[in-house]
């Protein structure tokens, strides 16, 4: 993907109400907020509410990243994290339809999969803390 292609990154972050991180040229009406809301990108009310609802679920249900690189993040008990993850990709598709020619980049897998799972899915070795001896893992210090 060329560096000149405008991008919208979808990345939930605590304190950010919409999870949208767009290239500056995509923002139609900028406010003084340190974040961008869907309406500022020209997204209609219905789709804006969908994005805000999905982000709100993250704020209310996400609990912890896990203690090791092999631990999956944790969410509130009985919360359907797979439905949330699927909805995230439905929002990616929605934004792709709203913004043809814009790179819509999902950035929410770290809230569902462990660091090691993400690395393995990318064809990389899983990582371990120094001093651990886990089969097939590499020491985190070797990534420097």
Short characterization:
The protein has 144 residues and is α/β, with parallel strands linked by helices.
- Could you tell me the radius of gyration in angstroms? 17 Å
One letter per element, helices H and strands E, the order comes to EEHEEHEHEE
Number of beta strands = 7
- Relative strand content: 5-15%
Structural class by sheet pairing and helices: alpha/beta
What's the number of domains?
Answer: 1
Number of helices: 3
Report the span from N to C terminus: 26 Å
The overall pLDDT average reads 92
What is the approximate shape? globular
What does the largest sheet look like? 3 strands, mixed
Strand order of the largest sheet: 2-1-5
Poorly predicted tracts of residues: none
**Percent helix:** 25-40%
Strands, helices and their partners?
Elements: E1 7-10, E2 20-22, H1 45-61, E3 62-64, E4 74-75, H2 81-98, E5 103-106, H3 115-121, E6 127-128, E7 138-139
Parallel strand pairs: 1-5, 6-7
Antiparallel strand pairs: 1-2, 3-4
Would you give an account of this structure?
There is one protein chain. By secondary structure, the chain is of the alpha/beta class. It has one domain. It is built from three helices and seven strands, in the order ββαββαβαββ. The chain has helices spanning 45-61, 81-98, 115-121; strands spanning 7-10, 20-22, 62-64, 74-75, 103-106, 127-128, 138-139. The protein has a three-stranded mixed beta sheet, with helices on one face. The chain has a two-stranded antiparallel ribbon with strand order 3-4. A two-stranded parallel sheet has the order 6-7. The longest helix has 18 residues, at 81-98. The model has no long low-confidence stretch (mean pLDDT 92).
């Amino acid at each position: 993907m060329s560096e000149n292609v405008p991008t919208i990154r979808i990345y939930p972050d605590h304190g950010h109400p919409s999870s949208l991180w767009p290239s500056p040229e995509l923002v139609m009406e900028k406010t003084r907020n340190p974040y961008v809301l869907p309406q500022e990108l020209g997204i209609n009310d219905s789709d804006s509410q969908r994005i805000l609802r999905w982000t709100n679920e993250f704020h209310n249900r996400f609990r912890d990243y896990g203690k090791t690189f092999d631990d999956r993040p944790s969410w509130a008990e009985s919360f359907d994290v797979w439905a949330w993850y699927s909805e995230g990709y439905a929002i990616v598709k929605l934004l792709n339809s709203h913004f043809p020619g814009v790179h819509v980049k999902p950035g929410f897998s770290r809230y569902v999969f462990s660091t090691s799972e993400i690395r393995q899915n990318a064809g990389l070795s899983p990582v371990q803390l120094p001093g651990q001896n886990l089969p097939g893992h590499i020491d985190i210090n070797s990534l420097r």
